[in-house]
UniProtKB/TrEMBL annotation:
InterPro entries tied to this protein: Alkaline_phosphatase, Alkaline_phosphatase_AS, Alkaline_phosphatase_core_sf
Name of this chain's protein: Alkaline phosphatase
Co-factor: note: Binds 2 Zn(2+) ions.
PROSITE patterns documented for this protein: ALKALINE_PHOSPHATASE
Length: 446
């Protein structure tokens, strides 16, 4: 009993010490963003990014329960709940036992909660903060769980998972009308950027696209930029002065890296970083706010060299479009027009041999991604920028922290450490089920 009391006192002391007057938390996740994604964007911008101004920087390991190379579902679960799980699973252990996220627990304590993303709101990373499914593709079920979460501010895409099957554009297989249900639960539901200004309070569900929002380099009209959504989320969550927790995902850094697209990565990282800047401005007026910026995993194996001791920065700065956009608008079968467009948008003089190689990729493609991926790697090579894969890697990722308690996010961390530290800093214990058996069945911990 005496030992138990000593342990309890020590736990309370640690909680007290860690609780450095953190009232609000803004938790940024750059999907697929590794060290070199951040560094490349900084080089191309010619300045330090907002996140790079942190005095407290750490390194985060990302492996999942069953593999050294995680997907976003397992990584999101670790970053949200503090537990490892298998790739593809959300909000539950490998044995399918659900575990609550930090957002769900904070909500139970009366803390306001927001989620802001540029992908479908039912995609893997945002879903890890409210969902519990064995398969990340169960987005219809995740949409239902999101409405049940009662989170205060929800912004992103994915309208198709909230509409009954009889409505054009729906991805549901039933007649559940989650938009009507959301309104019944007290949500204001909007679908346009221009409607944001009209929302002055209360719970908000903003779905700005049927699927994902357009890439940052293409987004116009009634789809807001990430920083605009973050500005509104902070306004609403802080309105009554009560504590809040906001998770913000730069969702599409990952997809541009999957395509080995340097221009796309550049623009997505900059959009994400601009939202970080908005948070930093908020924290200046609200110094009891902790800002944590990290990633779920690295994508693409990005390298700022191909072994030539050179990086053609000036050439990269002349790129004008992401490669998916370019390939979708310029037919490779029209040889002369295609070569001329490559010169116009990338300042690259494509040779006959290079053209023939890309044309052969199109002719032998087994996936719609084969040609844009090959084109992304081609334009990268012309700037002497390297990639090792079109998929995720097991590389560690950066973590940057600002504000009270930021010093706890330095050194080597596991992704499961991050939500646990945040929870202790806010003074709200994470109440997880007691595990009698080890849940890690994959990589050996060290």
């Amino acid at each position: 009993m005496r030992r138990l009391l000593v342990a309890l006192v020590l736990t309370l002391l640690v909680t007290f010490v860690l609780a450095s007057y953190v009232k609000n938390v803004i938790y940024f996740i750059g999907d697929g963003m590794g060290f070199n994604h951040v560094y490349l964007a900084s080089i191309l911008e010619g300045r330090p990014l907002n996140m790079m101004k942190s005095q407290h920087v750490g390194i985060v390991k990302t492996f999942s329960a069953n593999t050294w190379v995680t997907d976003s579902a397992a990584a999101g679960t670790a970053l949200a709940s503090g537990f490892k799980t298998n790739n593809g699973m959300i909000g539950m252990l490998p044995n399918k036992e659900p575990v609550p996220s930090i957002a769900e627990i904070l909500k139970l304590y009366g803390v306001k909660v927001g989620i802001v993303v540029t992908c479908r709101i039912t995609h893997a990373t945002p879903a890890a903060f409210y969902g519990h499914v064995p398969d990340r593709d169960m987005e219809n079920e995740l949409a239902e769980q999101l409405i049940e979460s009662d989170f205060d501010v929800i912004m992103g895409g994915g309208m198709r998972h909230f509409l009954p099957a009889s409505v054009k554009g729906s991805s549901r297989k039933d007649e559940k009308d989650l938009i009507s249900l959301a309104r019944e639960r007290g949500y204001t539901v909007i679908t346009k950027k221009s409607e944001l200004a009209q929302v002055e309070g209360g719970k908000l569900l903003a779905l700005f696209a049927s699927s994902h929002l357009a890439p940052a380099s293409e987004r116009t009209g009634e789809q807001p930029m990430l920083y605009e959504m973050v500005e509104k989320a902070l306004e609403l969550l802080s309105k009554d002065g009560e504590p809040f927790f906001l998770m913000v995902e730069g969702s599409q850094i990952d997809w541009e890296a999957h395509g080995n697209d340097p221009y796309g990565v550049w623009k997505e990282v900059v959009e994400f970083d601009k939202a970080v800047g908005v948070a930093l401005e908020f924290a200046k007026k609200n110094p009891d706010t902790l800002i944590v910026v990290s990633s779920d995993h690295e994508t693409g194996g990005l390298s700022t060299s191909t072994g030539t001791y050179m990086l053609e920065v000036d050439k990269l700065r002349k790129f004008k479009a992401n490669t998916d956009w370019f390939i979708s608008r310029h037919s490779i079968e029209e040889k002369e027009k295609f070569i001329a467009a490559v010169k116009e948008f990338y300042d690259i003089d494509m040779s006959e041999e290079e053209y023939s190689q890309l044309l052969n990729v199109k002719k032998t493609a087994k996936s719609v991604y084969d040609l844009p991926n090959a084109f992304g790697r081609y334009v990268s090579s012309k700037a002497l920028l390297g990639w090792t894969t079109f998929d995720h890697t097991g590389d560690p990722v950066p973590i940057f922290a600002f504000g009270p308690g930021a010093e706890h996010f330095t050194g080597w961390l596991d992704n499961t450490d991050v939500p646990r530290i945040i929870a202790r800093l806010m003074g709200y214990p994470l109440t997880y089920p007691i595990q009698k058996e080890p849940i890690i069945t994959g990589p050996v911990l060290y």
